[in-house]
Amino acid sequence: MTAPLLSLRDLRTEYRTDRGTVQAVRGVDLTLYRGEILGLVGESGSGKSVTCMSILKLLKRGGHITSGSADYDGTDLLRLSEGQLSRVRGDKIGVVFQDPMSALNPTMTVGRQVEEVLLQHRKISKKDARARAIELFKLVRIPSAETRIDNYPHEFSGGMRQRVMIAIALACDPDLLIADEPTTALDVTIQRQILALLKELRDRLGMAIILVTHDLGVIAETADRVMVLYGGQIMEEARVADLFEAPQHPYTRGLLAAIPDPRQSGGALTPVPGSPPDMRNPPSGCPFAPRCPKAMAICLTPPDLYGAGDALHLRPAQRTRCWLADPAVPAELMEAT
Amino acid sequence: MNSASRMPLAWLAQRVLMMLVTLLAVITLTFALMHAVPGGPFVSEKMLAPEIEAALNAKFGLDQPVWRQYLSYLWGVVQFDLGPSFKYPGVSVNSMIAEGLAVTAQTGLLAIICVVALGVPMGIVAALNRGRWPDTLAMFVASLGIAVPSYVIATVSLYVFALRLGWTPAFGLDDWRGYILPVFALSGFWMSFVARLTRSSLLETMGQDYIMTARAKGLPAHTVMLRHGLRNSMIPVVTVLGPVVANLLTGSFVIEQIFALPGIGRHFVLSITNRDYTAIMGITIFYAAFLMLMILIVDLLYLWLDPRISYGDRK
Ligand SMILES: Nc1ncnc2c1ncn2[C@@H]1O[C@H](COP(=O)(O)OP(=O)(O)O)[C@@H](O)[C@H]1O
Ligand code: SF4
Ligand SMILES: [Mg+2]
């Protein structure tokens, strides 16, 4: 069994604001293997962005990682200083953000924004950096790369800007690409193209991808494995086929039931009745309990992630954070409240 | 994309034309006002003999119909001739402005340099140390600079440094030390203003998504701030700098009065008390033209700072 590329253990991240402390991530475990696309899915506010940005400590003001470890290639990223982390960011791990309209610096040519990351991490001349930037533009299929490189972001469409972002993220051949809702801001056709591009680049370059989305259709089309987040915790974790075939968690079931054809993009996660918990004051038991049709008395106690290891596939098997999945729960506790 | 294609000549021509139209309006308005105020230019404390007054009127063309006076004045302005002073025989308004400007420009330029070279870094240091003592200190000083009027700064510093300590001369610019206090008093407010603006604009810019991108690229914190934050945060600062430059280069009567500097601000107020009509008109027109020129320069600076701006097509 190969060692994982990244293993995140018990990650807890909070945001301290004027109006209280938001417990954005509450003990997330995540294991990622080389070359795999792991989908992170969940409603808005479930903690997807904070989880994946915590890996590189790319938190906005007020954000604090209070516990956990992020073992990447033998080092715990969460213990690195800012200076040490900056050698990982952009070099070993690339990031693509949600909104390509605002994620590029409006006053710098796109070429310079790509060259900059190369010059930061590689000992190369400006001329070579430029040549490599053109090469990267071709890789992400930006037409007329040689001339477009001298343009400013506002001279590109949203889809093309996202390609520029991907070129920046891939510039130093990272082993891991974190893509936080890379297609949410784009229209459906462009979304398909970008997802296809990411998949193709994974096949060609072999990097692993953490793909954040609130769209189950995107997961179905792109990911190998998926983690469903809710209230800053993992509700269910499975291979994509398994999740769609046999969802275990009531939340996942609700999501899937509400979507006519989950294998189509556009299956945005809104239809489960009720609204997500206030993360300044999350429920003490199962976070989904207030919305769960199966909620029981025991659900006021926090459930664990249940599920046996999968001996055949040597990969983490389907795991579910729900009392219903715990084989040890006595029948008398399973009464509806 | 180069700057030239974002600033077509047609736009520049239109801009200059608009400036000329505005200037014409300013000339017309000041001319009309000067003729509307009660009492002729020569009515002062002592009465003039009627024949002398008539001779003076003839000399300055005041016996002509108003429209002819207006046209001949306009013709003068077109030739950059603002006419003779009403008050001082044989002195032209042009030479009054030139003489005053020579003094004002020296202190004004130094003040502008202080505003930019001290105000902007002060704001950057404050933003870099947000919430820590350098920030608190810089913002405390800046609040003082904004709250305390320049004449108070001038008077107090004059009293302390010139009269009590004797470190600087009390008036005049004969010694380099003579510049210190006037420049300090002139720039205090704007320096503080620019420091606060730089700080808040930089902090705002640092919250933008592309700053997170820059961090995700592995750039060191200072590179993120200076390369990606600063340029974008300078756009509002440049906006205020245009009028600030115009303001400082056209002088401050109060400061020039306190330090006994024969600058243009002092000339302007003196010409009002003297009812030096042509001087008032001339200096006003000069002020207006200068301000418009500064605003044009600011617009050109925008072009350089922000590649999204294009002056060609109005959509
Ligand atoms: N900068 C921030 N300041 C305060 N709270 C934040 C900030 N960013 C995220 N949060 C909070 O953290 C929680 C998780 O947010 P996030 O990870 O962005 O959700 P998602 O990406 O799944 O939509 C939410 O409750 C959100 O309000
Ligand atoms: S633990 Fe209870 S409330 Fe939570 S999902 Fe399972 S059944 Fe529903
Ligand atoms: Mg998000």
TrEMBL record, chain A:
Residues 6-256 form the ABC transporter domain. SMART domains: AAA. GO terms for cellular component: plasma membrane. One of its GO terms (molecular function) is ATP hydrolysis activity. Transmembrane segments: none annotated. Keywords: ATP-binding, Cell membrane, Membrane, Nucleotide-binding, Transport. This is Oligopeptide transport system ATP-binding protein. It comes from Pontivivens marinum.
TrEMBL record, chain B:
It is found in: Cell membrane. SUPFAM superfamilies: MetI-like (SSF161098). Residues 101-302 form the ABC transmembrane type-1 domain. PROSITE patterns: ABC_TM1. Its main location: membrane. Keywords: Cell membrane, Membrane, Transmembrane, Transmembrane helix, Transport. The chain crosses the membrane at residues 109-128, 140-167, 179-198, 235-259, 279-305. One of its GO terms (cellular component) is plasma membrane. It is a multi-pass membrane protein. Coiled coil: none annotated. GO terms for biological process: transmembrane transport. It holds the Pfam family BPD_transp_1. InterPro entries: BPD_transp_1_N, MetI-like, MetI-like_sf. Belongs to the binding-protein-dependent transport system permease family. This is Oligopeptide transport system permease protein. It comes from Pontivivens marinum. The lineage of its organism: Bacteria, Pseudomonadati, Pseudomonadota, Alphaproteobacteria, Rhodobacterales.
